[in-house]
Amino acid sequence: MKRIKVAELLQGTALGQEVLLKGWVRTKRGNKFVNFIAVNDGSTINTIQVVADVQQFNEESLKDITTGACVAVTGTLVESQGKGQSVEIQAKIIEVIGLADPETYPLQKKGHSLEFLREIAHLRPRTNTFGAVFRIRHAMSYAVHKYFNDKGFYYVQTPIITGSDAEGAGQMFRVTTLDVANPPKTETGAVDFSQDFFGKTTNLTVSGQLEGEVAAMALGEIYTFGPTFRAENSNTTRHLAEFWMIEPEMAFYDLADNMELAEDFLKFLVLYALNNCKDDLQFLNDMYDKELLNRLNFVVNNNFERLEYTQAVEILKTAKQKFEYPVEWGTDLQSEHERYLVEKHFKKPVILINYPKHIKAFYMKQNEDGKTVRAMDVLFPGIGEIIGGSQREENYEKLAARIQEMGIHAEELWWYLELRKFGTAPHAGFGLGFERLILFVTGMGNIRDVIPFPRFPKSAEF
Ligand code: 4AD
Ligand code: MG
């Protein structure tokens, strides 16, 4: 017999038929006469109830059906007698595929702390919370590809190992096959990376943007969606050392086009979640954050505020709130400032543009004022920066001058500069931090709980 998943069984289309269910036991309760076994198989947050007549099974075999065990159940799908479910399975055969020792299985009771669950990342997907989060994460990945595919953007795979520090976006992880205990040395005593695997120093990428620009200058509209790595020592609820980023890059877009795309894209993703992840969102809304669904609907239904950095600084300087970090024109905004603008002042998502050039990356298009660049950050409630992007400097001389001014090794970027030499065109793009999106959509409080295997300082278990 073919296995039917719980999500489909619960729809009741197989009512009256004999069915085969496979999954993991969440709970078992009952008495001398009857056992009720709740089984989940990951296809939905809901469990299906299996009813086992104790007389019909020998007691020994029912004993092994404990929380966490994996079972295969053959039985008839019937209308449920009890409350709480519409259908249930009247069991005929129950096979225990995998035992779970009740003495040592860690997920015995409900209500484990998220911190504890992080220590058992190999088992936490079996909880309602993480099942919901990872199903939503899947739906959001699919929605990203759907959005861009439907718009005629091409998915481009950019390299994970890079020979250039894309943008000084933070500390990088070195990739090497040299013997760290005894590396080859040059005459001056420095490590001789010419003997390394690639004949030069290489790192894990912090962004696929620069290679994305190469593709946009040929394919028009592209996006990347891949892992990125930053070795910054930030132990916050919004930073990971390994995270996923979506980076669209578009020929012939200016900053205004870029903002429009970012807003439309985010609204599409949130609406997709609302329409396709109803049960999981409802669970998270009820369990963790009663405002979650309201907040998601609010984002879909309201226009994002567009604001100049300079105006934002004025607002922050006259704010009644005391900030830990003072604000002056020229300082980078901290998360407390971003959240003040979004949550207190405008009470909606904000797109901040035209930042001072010295706090932004070398490739951003310089404005006529000589002080600012066409940068854009999208700020979200509860998150702060969810997207960072810009129009790019397409003028060869201006870009080369900026690279020199900032002391960046131009020789590593020769190919990037050549894009401005051969058929240059105005273009723009942005990066959406995938886990920050998932944080927002799920309402979870810590970024370590929205990626299956989080990487952060002093932690690379699993
Ligand atoms: O603002 P960032 O550094 O921009 C770039 O990397 C550009 N190359 C993007 C582009 O224009 N194509 O990072 C983009 C986004 C941030 O807005 C944030 O959402 C996320 O990536 N991000 C992180 N997410 C988790 N952990 C970290 N350590 C992150 N650093 C950035
Ligand atoms: Mg940024």
TrEMBL record:
Cell compartments where the protein resides: Cytoplasm
Keyword presence, ATP-binding: yes
Enzymatic reactions: tRNA(Asn) + L-asparagine + ATP = L-asparaginyl-tRNA(Asn) + AMP + diphosphate + H(+)
GO cellular component term, pick one: cytoplasm
Keyword Transmembrane on entry: no
Record key words, sorted: Aminoacyl-tRNA synthetase, ATP-binding, Cytoplasm, Ligase, Nucleotide-binding, Protein biosynthesis
Domain of life: Bacteria
Major place of residence: cytoplasm
Residues in Aminoacyl-transfer RNA synthetases class-II family profile domain copies: 134-452
EC assignment: 6.1.1.22
GO biological process terms on file: asparaginyl-tRNA aminoacylation
InterPro entries per the UniProt record, alphabetical: Aa-tRNA-synt_II, aa-tRNA-synth_II, aa-tRNA-synth_II/BPL/LPL, Asn-tRNA-ligase, Asp/Asn-tRNA-synth_IIb, NA-bd_OB-fold, NA-bd_OB_tRNA
Subunit structure: Homodimer.
NCBIfam families xref list: asnS, PRK03932.1
Family: Belongs to the class-II aminoacyl-tRNA synthetase family.
Protein name as annotated: Asparagine--tRNA ligase
